[in-house]
Specification:
By secondary structure, the protein is of the alpha+beta class. It folds into two domains: 255 residues, Ribosomal Protein S8, Chain: A, domain 1, CATH 3.30.1370; 42 residues, Hypothetical oxidoreductase yiak, domain 3 (Wheat Germ Agglutinin (Isolectin 2), domain 1, 2-Layer Sandwich). A hairpin with a 5-residue loop joins strand 8 and strand 9. Helix 2 crosses helix 4. The two termini are 13 Å apart. Keywords: Oxidoreductase. This is Malate/L-lactate dehydrogenase.
């Protein structure tokens, strides 16, 4: 592992994206979200995603010069991302939702046609840091199946929740509906090691520990039918509410080998807590259940987002630790874009 400056890594990542014709302001926004994901320990959705994002930008699967447009109405927004990177669309959706909360107690932003948004917990965190409760999800091409299925039946449809917590860092819960994120399978395949049993099925619907067979097959849902059910919730909120012509295009229903998908849909749903309960009462309630939870669990009781917050604070003091394998990949990316990876 080697340590890297947060500012330097952000600047270099922004330059890499700008070299793919992404406008400078958008490139910086996307780079900041990628680096913050790395800071908080989302290793499969941080800097490791940058090479695949560049690949998708150069292939025009992500639109580097997207013109985002929105249609607003009471309590909602439809954001047409025009194929933009997910980080650019996601950041815009967060801003629109927060602006909407100035006039409404609840705002749902349906995002059409955007790229892979990365770690959804980062958007939920931004909302919670601004004082809002937030639910965010993105549909993916089919990736999940139950044992015996003849193919992937529904996306693993990640979903995240963020909530301010009085006296501490926000609660941030971020999961995919699979037992393990596909990014972990991609990392195992890249490193030439097996995946744990219970993660995936091969193309015949049989359990496998071979990451290549898993990538050709399907992921298993967390909690069996419960995971499939949550994936269906995201399909309804992120897919149906943001349906557009691109939703039916065959080329956007295939999962690329790099794992970064273009032209997908998502949603960000925010609530203004003070519209529902006075802040003192709400804070007292939050403290009560959090204190009870910690009293019951002792050293084992950790709130979602707590470890990520601690890791981010440590990285802000010491820099970002990156594994040598990833550094090698980023150096190769820098060479290909004529932007040397910083020492």
């Amino acid at each position: 592992m080697t340590n890297h400056s947060i500012a330097t890594l952000t600047d270099w990542s922004a330059q890499i994206l700008a070299s793919c014709q992404v406008p400078a302001e958008d490139a910086l926004q996307a780079a900041q979200l990628l680096v913050r994901s790395e800071l908080r320990g989302y290793a499969t959705h941080g800097m490791a995603r940058l090479p695949s994002y560049v690949e998708r930008l150069l292939a025009q699967d992500f639109n580097p010069s997207a013109r985002l447009r929105q249609r607003e109405f009471p309590g909602g927004v439809v954001l047409d991302a025009d194929g933009a990177m997910g980080q650019i669309a996601g950041a815009r959706a967060v801003r629109l939702a927060l602006q909407g909360l100035e006039r409404s107690a609840s705002v749902l932003v349906a995002i059409q046609s955007c790229g892979h948004m990365g770690a959804l917990g980062v958007y939920a965190l931004l909302a919670a840091e601004a004082g809002a409760m937030c639910l965010v999800g993105q549909r993916t091409p089919p990736l999940l199946a139950m044992e015996g299925f003849t193919g992937a039946a529904i996306g693993h449809n990640p979903i995240a929740f963020g909530c301010p917590a009085p006296g501490g860092s926000p609660i941030v819960f971020d999961i995919a509906c699979s037992v393990a994120a596909r990014g972990h399978v991609l990392v195992a395949e890249r490193e030439g090691r097996d995946i744990p049993a219970g993660w995936a099925l091969d193309s015949q619907g049989c359990p496998t520990t071979d990451p290549q067979a898993a990538l050709a097959g399907a992921l298993l849902p967390m909690g069996g039918h419960k995971g499939i059910g949550i994936a269906m919730v995201v399909e309804c909120l992120a897919g149906a509410l943001a349906a557009s012509a691109a939703s039916f295009a065959p080329q956007w229903q295939q999962v690329p080998t790099s794992g970064a998908v273009g032209r997908q849909s998502a949603f960000i749903w925010m609530l203004r807590p003070q519209a529902f309960a006075p802040q003192p009462l709400r804070d007292d309630y939050m403290r009560q259940w959090i204190d009870h939870y910690r009293a019951c669990g002792g050293a084992h009781a950790r709130l979602p987002g707590q470890r990520a917050a601690e890791q981010e604070q440590r990285a802000q003091r010491m820099g970002i630790e990156l594994p040598e394998r990833l550094v090698h990949q980023l150096r190769a990316l820098g060479t290909s874009r004529q932007l040397a990876f910083p020492a």
